[in-house]
Design brief:
Blueprint (H helix, E strand, L loop, with lengths): L2 H21 L27 E15 L10 E15 L8 E7 L11 E7 L2 E2 L2 E2 L5 E7 L10 H8 L4 E6 L11 H21 L6 E11 L1 H10 L9 H4 L13 H6 L4 E7 L15 H4 L6 E6 L7 H10 L5 E6 L19 H7 L6 H21 L36 E6 L3
Helix pairs in contact: 2-10, 3-4
């Protein structure tokens, strides 16, 4: 047998063995799965009282610009999107809330430095379970990073569904682990995908249980970029993004453009930008200036690590400080980098260091980050989508948790003694 063939067979065997090992990961009801609470989890991290169902839904946004195939002009195509939707469900007696999610390591097909490696992992939801009858629930739309997937934040999506939200996470075409390509497509389509998903969820199968007039958007990294545009942050005319996208197609999102103003959906009542991309050190001409950020007039919860080198902490801090018409908070993970938002590292990623670092926080335990995010997002959305004013003390905190003594009035509400170490919470009221 020749050497190239031996190498091919060996590589194939390793990939298949890894995929099998991942698929056989313990998914029993007692195993520790993504999103489960650690012993030091804050009070609102725990799951709610609703059963959780999940469905995979394929939708298509008709007659969209095909930026990826732009020549002298952009052709049109029907843009496919895949959603994973979690929702409050009726769980039959004896049924177990367990499912499996599929994803791949890597970034786009044909990338020799980041080859595609399929894997599966378990989650706590019952696939295709019946809707919880007789209620409507606020809608939460989740937008992943570049590259990412609709199952990158299942620790959060399942958790929110258990607390009475319908949660729709998008696979953004041209931007997933499996198909990442043409960054210009991501820049143009993020906010468009978010608003189209909102319309679909309000009008189709999930319409009977969705209160679309109370919608929040959660976006991570490039998803945070799309979330800010959907929230009213019109981009700057001098931003680098205008040069990346051909044909002046970013004009539609520029601050002061009447088309952009009419694009904004008033049903979006709150946003959670997590490590949002667009104004970091890697961007010579920032996506937003202070004037454009004035367009955000809904509540916002920014979440970021102060050592983020991808989105840039200073860039996110600028977004937070200059969203002056928003009642906004910023949760900061001290020494956290860009991965403070995602699921724990899949077991299979231990053999692929670049993919391992796509998930893993070097200083923080991702499971701890997951529980902290669950806690604060539950409080924030509970206040602004469900009117739970009793959650306000969980946000009104002394800025630096390290300066608060446990078992005193200053200590962070909902945290066990010493478990808020390394966190900051900043708040700015609208002007």
């Amino acid at each position: 047998m020749n050497k190239p063939l031996i190498a091919f067979v060996t590589t194939t065997f390793i990939l298949l063995s890894n995929a099998l090992m991942a698929s056989e990961q313990d998914s029993s009801p007692t195993a520790f799965l993504n999103g489960d609470p650690r012993a030091d989890a804050p009070a609102l991290a725990y799951r709610g009282t609703y059963g959780v169902g999940v469905q995979t839904v394929n939708i298509s946004n008709l007659n969209q610009l095909d930026i990826k195939n732009y020549a002298q002009s952009a052709p049109r195509y029907d843009r496919p999107l895949k959603l994973e939707v979690w929702y409050p469900a009726t769980i039959p007696t004896g049924a177990v809330q367990l499912t499996r999610y599929s994803d791949v390591l890597g970034q786009g097909a044909g990338n020799p430095e980041r080859p595609l490696v399929p894997f599966e992992f378990p989650g706590r939801a019952l696939r295709d379970a019946s809707f919880q009858p007789g209620e409507k629930f606020p809608l939460v739309i989740v937008s992943h990073g570049y590259a990412g997937s609709r199952v990158l934040l299942t620790y959060l999506t399942e958790n929110l569904a258990s607390k009475g939200y319908v949660v729709a996470a998008i696979d953004h075409t041209d931007s997933t682990h499996a198909d990442a390509t043409a960054f210009a497509s991501t820049l143009v389509n993020r906010a468009l995908d978010i608003n189209f998903t909102l319309n679909h969820m309000a009008e189709n199968t999930f319409g009977p249980i969705v209160d679309a007039n109370n919608t929040a958007v959660i976006g991570y990294s490039m998803g945070g970029y799309g979330t800010l545009i959907a929230a009213g942050a019109g981009i700057s005319k001098t931003g680098d993004v205008n040069n990346i996208v051909p044909g002046n197609e970013m004009n539609r999102f520029q601050a002061g453009n009447s088309d952009y103003e009419s694009f904004l959906d008033p049903r979006i009542k709150a946003v959670v930008p997590m490590a949002p991309w667009g104004n970091g050190a890697s961007v010579k001409n920032p996506t937003w200036n202070a004037e454009g950020l004035k367009g955000i007039d809904i509540p916002a919860l920014f979440i970021v690590g102060n050592m983020d080198r991808t989105s840039g902490f200073k860039g996110v801090e600028f977004l937070f400080e200059n969203s002056v018409n928003s009642d906004r908070y910023m949760l900061v993970y001290q020494n956290g980098i860009h991965e403070i938002a995602v699921n724990p590292t899949p077991e299979i990623a231990k053999d692929y260091f670049r993919e391992y670092m796509h998930y893993q926080e070097p200083v923080w335990d991702n499971r701890r980050c997951n529980n902290i995010n669950q806690h604060f997002i539950t409080a924030f959305l509970g206040i602004h989508l469900k009117g739970k004013k009793e959650y306000q003390p969980y946000l009104d905190l002394i800025t630096l948790a390290n300066e608060a003594e446990p078992n005193t009035a200053d200590y962070w509400a909902g945290f066990k003694p010493w478990t808020a170490v390394g966190l900051e919470m900043h708040h700015r009221a609208p002007h």
